[in-house]
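Appendix B. Extra example for self-study. Work through it before the problem class; the solution is given directly after the inputs so you can check yourself.
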Amino acid sequence: MSRSNCIAWMCLTVVVAASQLFGTAAAAEPPSSALRMAWLRMPGGAESGSELASWAQEIRIRTSIDMLPSAIGLRPEDPAIFHFPLLYWGGDRAVPRLSDQAILHLRQHLSTGGTLLVDNTGRTEPSHAFDQSMRRELARVFPQSLQRIASSHVVLRSFYRLERPMGRRADAHDLEGVRVGSHLAVIYTRNDLAGALARSPMGGYALAVVPGGETQREQAFRLAVNLVMYVLCLDYKDDHTHVMHLLRYRRGSRVPEPAATQGADEP
Amino acid sequence: MNPSHFIGDHLEWALSWTWGARILAMLLGLCVLWLSALNLRALSSRRRRGTLFGIRTLLVASLLAVLLQPTWVSLGQRPGSRRVAVLVDSSQSMDQAPGGRRRWDAAITAATQLSGELPVEVLVVADHVEKAVDIKRLKEHAPTGVGTDLLGALGALGDSHRVAGLSAVVLLTDGLDNAELRARNQPAGKALDPDSAEVVARLRVPVHSLLIGDKAPVRDIAVTGIRSAAFGFTRTFMPVSVEIEISGYDKQQGNLAVALSDNGRPVATRQVPLAGPSRRAIEFDFQPLHVGAHLIEAAVVPLPGEATEANNHGYASLRVVRDRTRVLHLAGHPSWDTRFLRSHLRGDPSVDLVSFYIMVGQGSAAFVSAEDTTLIPFPTREILEESLTSFDLVIFQDFQFGPFQVEQYLPQLRSYVHGGGAFLVIGGKQALSAGGYYGTGLAEWLPVRLQALTGDDVGFSEATLNLKLTPAGEVHPVTQLAKDPEANRATWARLGWNGRNTALQAGESGNVLVTDTTGHPLLAVGEVDQGRSAVLATDSLWTWAFPPTALDPVRDRNRSDYNQFLDQLFAWLLRDPDLDALRLEVVGEAGPSRPAQVRVSARAASGQPVAGVVLHVGVAPLTQMPGVPTLQAYAEPTDAQGQVLVILADLAPGAHLVTVEAPIGGRPQRATVPLVVRAADREASQLQPSDDLLQKLATASGGRVWRSLPRRAAIPLAHPDTVDLADQLHTDLWARPQVLIWLVMLLGLEWTLRRRWGLA
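Solution. Structure tokens for the complete assembly:
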């Protein structure tokens, strides 16, 4: 190897090392009010990246949510996960047993208001290995198992009206979740939601959506928006069915009957 | 006096000695006799000894008899006849003369007519009973009584010895009792109340009444009462019924204005046509705006020619509490800050939360089809005009209101806050100066002074903030996260925020409680007339609820600080009485014979009573609101329980607002409470003659009520036959001169015989 090449490789190494350091420093930054998603780096798991950036971009375009464009990857043992109330966990293979500290962190995070979006990113079908191992680890976090989320749940109408969850695939008809208190702390989709959002380096979409094509991709985007909107608004849309009643119910007000009044009110 | 018919006599011993004293006296007498017997042994003749001993015995017995005061009592009987007690009302209302003739003069005429037909005993009554007067001298009296107590007069009659000789009672009155009889029979029922019926029953004769009316009605408008619930809920409409009586104006066209006010604040005015029933109830829907004591006043505008304006006002006290807190939460966009605030509010079962989030940005609308979403138009008019006053608290959270036509409703918001509403602005990149609040009407009632953005300043700075309590924040109830001052400072120093709104300074009327270490305001609160406002110039309060640390104790402590801080902030904004440093409570009812009394309680921010607090007290008529009264130091400070009773003497009749100021915890505290001083002139409360109470008295006693005096034969009387009156004659035998002569004679005889027979 030539001397110049050595110097180049050394510089590159320094740059990469610095980026890791900056990345770590970024993770230690105090939380901003702007929403930033953090994805969990699991042992043996794939790296997430462009799909979450695409996700954030759609949120910024379609809604008023102030969302940072890039997501950050963190190990569940990293205390920095407590800077990010919204976590993403995507996988397409078996997950090894997580450390006790990781389990403890996830339990604390989700019990105090955090939310974990779990995405089965199996390419041709939902990964059975990921599904089983993920359920095993979640059972260590919470005793209650994942339950089917009804189609009437507010998550499917928190922004868009959705009849069913879609992703790059359309295998599962329902979302699953774990409820903690009054909100869903864990939301699981088996349809590879991030896969529908991923973009290629050229700017187009990286993966085809089956069987519905681009129409289905739009539905996937809408689910992605709904999930983030639900995390921030919880049951706000459920309230709306009663808001008009709350506004009009003026607690004991008596509508004056013109025939019975003695006279007219003056301001 | 000679009894016309002797029925018997007897002897009485008038001396009131106990039996012990009497026995002692007898023993003394026996002792004297025994000594006498010893002395007589010197005589040889038994006949002489017996004579002298007999005289001595007679003497001792006579002395004992005199000592016991014998009295001869003779009983006699003579015939008499029952009388009619005529009670003439001499209260001030009898001085009315709307038809040209005084009611008092009509009463005198009726009393004179009665005295000519029946044996009468005339008593003048008002707020007390005068002694019986001669009918011929009745005109010398004047109707000046300050009250009318018919029940008191009947009760006094029943307790006196006169009742034994009565055959009837006739009341000559306009029926305007304003004492116990009226109070016990409100609201009007069909029968007399049981206690009053018992008083009437003791008389055992019918109680008739001659209603002294007028040839023409008194021209008067009177507020006769205000009917409402004893307590109400904040911002909840409740019915208030004002009862008025109109007389003498039935032929007059036009309307009468009836105004309702709450603690001096006008509520509503209704125009009532003069023509119509004389007694009416005017209904109001009243919405109390804040917790605490309320004084409702109903007033009618005086009309020309009214007999008196003293009865043109009525008062009712009302205590208002909070049932559920209605919160309007407007958020400029979904965020972690809105998410955790929403969770906090929704977790409180006493909160009715109405939220509106702006979910689509200005640039987003082009990418979103309304058909595919659950979005609804922002109901600006409905929430900021129609329903605004139904909310206890309005929150603008990072809400740039400009694009949503909110600015046209700022006058309503202003009225809402000034009238007692609570308003909170939570900061962010779309709030305060960053959100275009500068230069708008909204900036007027914030506790901070906004500045225009200059240069590169976008109105928000992303920076880690260390928090510091100001001197005001160290003692303010909002920022008390720990009771111990040192622990409280340490708690705030441990907590932090990220990002703050810029381009703002401390306002003149606000209190900055928290700053960053460079002095930039972060939390400010302020009074806005009767309302309150607060500014939290950051959007990172949520980090307390989801603290960035894995350690359990700190996470739990921070989360509890989040909930506690919000609870205290809302409690202060909503004027929760538990946070008041000064509490005022009106004690009893003030009137002409009882000064106004207000109990003042002083408490520190920790809730402990504060002793030795010197108060400054001021009183002003409620009609002068919103003026600030002149305050003067009160001599007595608070006691060990933090309380003192403030006595306010010589207040004019009417509604007043008492203001108390005192320094507590180094901060001036102020509290107010309304009170009413009842007028002495009870007689002016009602002027129209009324027979409602007279009818009840008549029904309870078998009497009648007339509007003109009937003939003698038509007046029912009880016990028409004559009745015997018994007389007694007492003669003191022991004081007669014959007794003295007898005693002297016995003494002289004994002395003569003793000398003659050689005894000393």
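Self-check: Chain B has a mean pLDDT of 87. If your reasoning did not lead you there, revisit section 3.
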